[in-house]
Amino acid sequence: MKEKSKLRQVLQVPVIVAALGYFVDIYDLLLFAIVRIPSLESMGLKGEDLTHVGLYILDIQMAGLLVGGILWGILGDKKGRLSVLFGSILIYSVANILNGMVTTVEQYAILRFVAGIGLAGELGAGITLVAEILPKDLRGYGTTLIASVGVLGAVFANYIAQEFDWRNAYFIGGGLGLSLLILRVSVFESGIFLKLKETTASRGNFFLLFSKKELFFKYLRCILIGLPIWFVIGSLVFLSPEVGLTIGIQEKIIAGDAIMYSYIGLCAGDLSSGLLSQYFKSRKKVILVFILMTFAIMLIYLFAPYKSKEMFYLICGGLGFSTGYWALFVTVAAEQFGTNIRATVATTVPNFVRGSVNLIHPVFLFIKFRTDILQAGLYVGIIVIAIALLALYRMKETFSKDLNYIEGEEKEEESQLVYTKG
After folding, report:
1. How big is the chain by its Cα radius of gyration, in Å?
2. Chain-centre distance for alpha carbon 231
3. What per-residue confidence (pLDDT) applies to 410?
4. Which residues contact 46 (CB under 8 A, 6 or more apart)?
5. Contact indicator for 25, 150 with CB cutoff of 8 Å
6. Angle, CA of 89, 353 and 209, to the nearest 5°
7. Which of 80-84, 309-313, 412-416 has the lowest average pLDDT?
């Protein structure tokens, strides 16, 4: 009976709608990676241009995520978590419908930038809302559910891309997003945020994160522990056709299939890491295990002596599983900071990690031109893993942390928000 009661507490409408929202978010976020080759080939590109222009458009999309992360994060703390959930999905849904009409690389890049701005708000606002409405001993289950359901959007995107023309795949994604707006009407705002609005505390002050050395480094550590995740997704798996060719696999590697298998693994990893963190009552220990696992499977992906397409896709699934601390990573970011800047942090942190590919790709390509894609993957992988481990070492545990406080006061104890019964 007790377990059933816990399940009912977790399966609230905001949790379910946030999970479905992240499902559509991941569909649209990864659709370009899945249809990169056929869409660019339809515009006359071929050979190395498919790699270089593909990375360029992906970087533009991620730049949009960086901009949107800041904008939606500030808005989420100033106006509320729901304003972000409505606004972000409207923008990226319309942008994806227009993506299905592009005829030039320039149009494609501009609309992926706009879509990136919209996509930036979904996950952070959803995680923040769920973390604040659920009891602290259950919020890990809620955020795990969001991430586990959400990442399956990549599987659905690959299915749609195989069954439909790449333009129709964009139209379907946009339609899914607009349909989700109807469900959003039934979602209620976080009670913690509503109480915050009654105070005079400064909300959504992005620059507060840079006002003190302690706050800045805490914020930076939240970003750095996630670097391996998007290095794997945005470089190794994104360039899976090129990696497969270099390894010597005779059968053609399909990027959409590699992404699909990696996200099936990511779904299982998110579910596992979330449940393990609840069992061990620790976020840090579980994240440490998954980062080390990421490095081990990355070495297998790049250098193990395998030649079959099936084994390649299986290892992609392993890579996805090992990076399945994404849910924990975003949850930790939300738990590290006070209510007045929680949405700002939870929204900007994952998007800065996604946007890190803009720094990683030039280094990756610099090494690739002088060695090969496998050596580039190794060297950059070692760098991002080392950075993540160092950041995690200095991070505080947040499993049982009370989230009901305002950031920026001299002591958290003095800034507790006062609640009345009911």
Report:
1. 21
2. 12
3. 43
4. none
5. yes
6. 90
7. 412-416
Contacts of 298 (CB under 8 A, 6+ apart): 232, 236, 319, 322, 377, 381, 385
Per DSSP, 88 falls in state H
For 157-179, what is the mean pLDDT? 94
184-196 residues labelled b (16+ CB within 10 A) or e (exposed): beebebbebbeeb
Neighbours of 369 (CB within 10 A): 9
Domains of the chain: 11-183+205-415 (1.20.1250.20)
Q: What are the tens digits of pLDDT across the range 386-411?
A: 999 999 998 988 887 877 778 765 44
Amino acid letter, residue 214: E
Residues 6+ apart with CB under 8 A from 77: 203, 204, 205, 340, 341, 342, 343, 344
CB count, 10 Å around CB of 179? 13
Q: Is 250 helix (H, G, I), strand (E, B) or coil?
A: coil
pLDDT of 419: 40
Residue 95 CB partners (closer than 8 Å, separation 6+): 111, 112, 114, 115, 118, 174
Owner of token pair 């808005």: 75
Alpha-carbon distance 196 to 225, whole Å? 29
- For residue 176, the Cα-to-chain-centroid distance in whole angstroms is 19
Structure tokens at 390: 């160092």
Which residue pairs from 37-42 have beta carbons closer than 8 angstroms and sit at least 24 positions apart in sequence?
Answer: 37/241, 37/255, 38/166, 39/108, 39/166, 40/105, 42/166
End-to-end CA distance of the chain: 24
The Cα–Cα gap between 399 and 125 comes to: 20
Neighbours of 4 (CB within 10 A): 8
> Residue 348's closest CA among 68, 64, 69?
69
What's the pLDDT band for 1 if we cut at 50, 70, 90? very low
Residue 74's contacts (CB-CB under 8 Å, 6 or more residues apart) are 204, 205, 206, 344
Distance of alpha carbon 285 from alpha carbon 272, whole angstroms: 13
Say if residues 265 and 324 touch (Cβ distance below 8 Å): yes
Specify the 3-state DSSP secondary structure of 10.
helix
Spatial CA neighbour of 342 closest among 193, 212, 237:
193
H or E element at residue 218: helix 213-224
Give the pTM.
0.78
> Which residue type is seen at 206?
F
